[in-house]
Design goal:
The chain has ten helices and seven strands. The protein is α+β, with helices and mostly antiparallel strands and 342 residues long.
Length: 342
């Protein structure tokens, strides 16, 4: 049997455990209160005290060490910890004493991903500490890290919350604009493009608009609710910024509603056009059938295999029958035109 004491004393095992922790910790900063920050690691994470300054730690939710640290060392409310680690979430905010649990979603701008497959970020915000978790990379976080490197970043916990919401909304803008441009392009192509191509693109755009709106609408409610929270670290200036973010999200939601309605109108128009084409085709087929029905009846009667068929022995009978059929067809077409059937 393998001795257990060797497992715990083996330097390789300790190194693996450290590497696992480093994979769980995406970044950590101790803010200097002037727009800059000092990067920190697991050692600072374990030894941090409130007197050290505002601490922001950004973790990978999918790593086991993240779950262990949150449950055993972060001293969080159990319900908040469960919400931060949940697999499926929707945008919302919950107040716990003077702390906030905030869940937001941003567009997925990772290579090869669909923007409407929105990425979730979960935040636990206290007076002197911010814990954020994600499962997939989020460009908004990188924007904030860059601002901290340039000494123009957040100065406190409220600033981090506002910055995350603001950067996520900024990243949404080009995606919403591109979708509107695609809808405009399809409206211009309604006359010339093939119906099948239009149906596929319209369906894809409508699904994208529905998916984006599904997450944007509750996010607007989160921003509106945060404006009403009476928390010491959330200043009036922060609430003004949140109001602006909420207004921008409202515009995005209205744009998505407008895009959905325009796409629905185009789909209805396309369906009407296809139905009209089908009706014309069926009408032509019905007219052709009406013309050839009596002709087929006549030829069928002359083709029965019994005695007494008129003209059976006459060499001119076939020619006369052909003239008769042509005359009947012309007579029917003349009648249809008189009746304005075509």
């Amino acid at each position: 049997m393998f001795p257990l004491h060797r497992l715990f004393l083996d330097p390789t095992s300790l190194e693996t455990f450290t590497m696992s922790q480093q994979e769980a910790l995406i970044c950590a900063y101790i803010l200097d209160g002037k727009g800059g920050a000092r990067q920190a690691g697991w050692a600072e994470l374990e030894s941090w005290k409130r007197s050290d300054g505002v601490f922001w730690v950004h973790l990978d939710r999918t790593r086991p060490d993240t779950k262990t640290w949150l449950e055993e060392k972060a001293h969080l409310d159990p319900l908040a910890c469960e919400a931060l680690l949940a697999e499926e979430t929707r945008p919302r905010s919950v107040r716990v004493n003077d702390s906030l649990l905030v869940i937001l979603r941003g567009v997925n701008l990772n290579p090869g991903a669909d923007p409407e497959d929105m990425v979730s970020i979960r935040l636990w915000v206290e007076t002197d500490r911010v814990i954020s978790l994600r499962s997939r990379p989020l460009m908004a976080i990188q924007d904030i890290r860059n601002s901290l490197s340039g000494q123009t970043g957040p100065k406190g916990a409220g600033d981090i919350l506002v910055a995350v919401a603001d950067k996520m909304v900024d990243r949404m803008g080009p995606v919403i604009t591109d979708l509107d441009d695609e809808v405009d392009e399809l409206e211009d192509k309604m006359v010339t493009a093939a119906s099948r191509d239009l149906r596929v693109r319209l369906g894809s755009l409508r699904r994208k608009a529905i998916s984006l709106r599904r997450h944007l609408a509750p996010q607007r409610e989160v921003m509106a609710r945060l404006q009403l929270e009476q928390i010491p670290w959330l200043s009036q200036f922060h609430k003004v910024q949140l109001r602006e973010i909420a207004d921008q999200i409202m515009r995005f939601v209205e744009d998505m509603d407008s895009a959905r309605e325009r796409i629905a109108v185009m789909q209805e128009e396309l369906a009407g056009r296809l139905a009209e084409q089908m009706n014309k085709t069926m009408y032509v087929l019905a007219l052709v059938a009406a013309v050839f029905l009596p002709l087929g009846l006549l030829t069928g009667l002359l083709g029965i295999n019994v005695g007494g068929i008129p003209g059976a022995e006459d060499p001119l009978a076939f020619f006369l029958v052909c003239l008769l059929l042509i005359f009947l067809a012309g007579l029917q077409i003349w009648m249809f035109r008189r009746l304005k059937w075509f």
